């Protein structure tokens, strides 16, 4: 593990913010266990719990907390200067931070989605959701990491993307789905484990290509942005 | 020998000009960057450290531009003014992380050497969040020094340090300067700079107002008396006693107390307590009322 990744991981798990990662996965698994134990028909609870909560809320919100936490909090408190005053290629810094963000988001979202999917239908659905969640974690993390370099309010803008773009516009304006990571995740999970619970609205090709574009585009933009990182003087 | 060079550098934010056409060369040794708050010192330091692009002109370290050039950090260390330490790490971990990111061959040895330099060895295994401001500051200096950089830039390095730590930091900067390092530190406290550095770069309102040996600039101001506000248990009797003192060039008395003009700062401040004790007068307030850099600069600019 690189020193940057080590500091990032220590920073992430050393802050209280990490506790925010626990409630949503627990809620997802808890609801799935509850429905299963009361023998509720999976056709009734599968879509609202797995898609409505799991893919529309748990995955993006966890990625948002982690993705903006790995760099945004260091930019906020000024500790980023400690890392930037080293002769490290900015690409290495971004990749180390992105790696931690993807790893933590993917594990935190994919495991409960696997469990909930397996309880709703089959281990295959669980696996499909978990794989799609990993892809989604990559795209979301790269996007939110870039946001934390573009704006001083990355969490707010991230929430606007999740709630307004994906949650509201994605439901009513079909054209916005091409730029919706949630739709790529649903499509990928649906292709791995076709069930009535998931309803793909974009093609697999669009999903894969756009997910790659999100990851590469946002990563390259973040590297370039970090190269030009400016520090405003408080007394200037 | 490493030099930092600013050539016709300006920096503006929208319509506000923060730094206006500054040219300076920093040679090995300790240089103080002086100026009142808001003069543009931090902007200049950040441009030198590669954290701001100049709107016009060039900033280079040994000919290499500092902007978008991480390689300069092999030769340059920065201690920024803002608190910037990972509180969840210990000082040893923090400094060693710096050594590793610098890819030093023996990171542990370099860490111990840097911690010793700033006298932080004893507390090095405590988390930084438990430190006082002065200890944090020394930890940051250790991290900036771990790779023994040729150039060290420090923004208000004495903030939060107690007098003993301040003295130690001053002698550390002296030593580094004597060993051929190029050290630049910013401060708005004139006496602080006087003790550390002979050479100063003075910035007022974004412009380079004076440059060179501090003592020479200081000498230019000896025709200006130092003004003190004094309050005591018997202002009138104290005024009579003070006017007999050689270093005092004038005394005014009003309802707020005394306004004393002293031609020699050191002689007056030594004489005042002696006179007060001799007269049995209790001093309630002694405030240098024109010691701020702003006043000094207004003298300079008027001269």
From TrEMBL, chain A:
Pfam families the record matches: ABC2_membrane_2
Superkingdom assignment: Bacteria
GO MF assignments: ABC-type transporter activity
Record keywords, A-Z: Membrane, Transmembrane, Transmembrane helix
Cellular compartments per GO CC: plasma membrane
Membrane-spanning intervals of the chain: 47-72, 93-119, 125-147, 154-173, 204-223
Protein name according to UniProt: ABC-2 type transport system permease protein
From TrEMBL, chain B:
Organism listed in the record: Actinoplanes auranticolor
GO molecular function: ATP binding; ATP hydrolysis activity
SUPFAM superfamilies referenced in this protein's UniProt entry, alphabetically: P-loop containing nucleoside triphosphate hydrolases (SSF52540)
Ranges for domain ABC transporter: 4-230
Phylogenetic placement of the source organism: Bacteria, Bacillati, Actinomycetota, Actinomycetes, Micromonosporales
PROSITE patterns: ABC_TRANSPORTER_2
Similarity comment text for this entry: Belongs to the ABC transporter superfamily.
Protein name stated in the entry: ABC transporter ATP-binding protein
Keyword Acetylation: no
Keywords, alphabetical: ATP-binding, Nucleotide-binding, Transport
Pfam families, per the entry: ABC_tran (PF00005)
